[in-house]
Write a structure and sequence with these properties.
There is one protein chain. The chain has 142 residues and is mainly beta. Helices cover 14% and strands 41% of the residues. The protein is built from two helices and twelve strands; from the N terminus they run E-E-E-E-H-E-E-E-E-E-E-E-E-H. The strands form two sheets. Strands 1, 2, 3, 4, 5, 6, 7, 10, 11 and 12 form a ten-stranded mixed β-sheet that branches. Strands 8-9 form a two-stranded antiparallel sheet. Strand 6 and strand 7 form a beta hairpin. The longest helix has 10 residues.
């Protein structure tokens, strides 16, 4: 996956301090669980399982209308939660790809023509913390 286009996307999105992360992965990869963990640390749901990408100057992510405010919690089912109607996208997370080594090169993905950071997170622990710190801009480039 090297680029994403406008329209519906199979993925989940969460906002931290007004900036969104798009979480990608096959069904059962942990998208909703990661969203719930980030929400438990102060994040806000944008959309679960299906979101919509749009924007010209910068990518924007919104919930799919039919799923707005719904989050699937495995073993519990669908729950209604507060959600944000839209947010600028600043980060993508791919739960289907493992990072290349302990300290991998920085990865990017093109979303609506804009290069964004990409975290390949399959099998990683502390992904929620990495997402939150990245969106808050508290990680330092080495």
């Amino acid at each position: 996956m090297s680029s994403l286009s406008a329209g519906p996307i199979h993925g989940s999105a969460v906002a931290v301090d007004g900036k969104a992360a798009l979480i990608l992965g096959v069904s059962g990869s942990g998208k909703s669980s990661l969203v719930a963990e980030i929400m438990s640390r102060g994040g806000t749901l944008i959309g679960d399982d299906q979101v919509v990408l749009s924007g010209v100057a910068h990518p924007i992510v919104k919930p799919a209308p039919q799923l707005a405010g719904l989050l699937e919690l495995r073993g519990i089912g669908l729950v209604r939660v507060p959600f944000q109607e839209r947010a600028p996208l600043y980060l993508c997370v791919n739960l289907d790809v493992a990072p290349d080594g302990r300290m991998p090169d920085r990865c990017t993905i093109t979303v609506l023509g804009k290069q964004l950071p990409l975290i390949n997170a399959q099998g990683l622990q502390n992904v929620a913390a990495s997402v939150i710190l990245t969106l808050r801009g508290t990680l330092v480039e080495t």
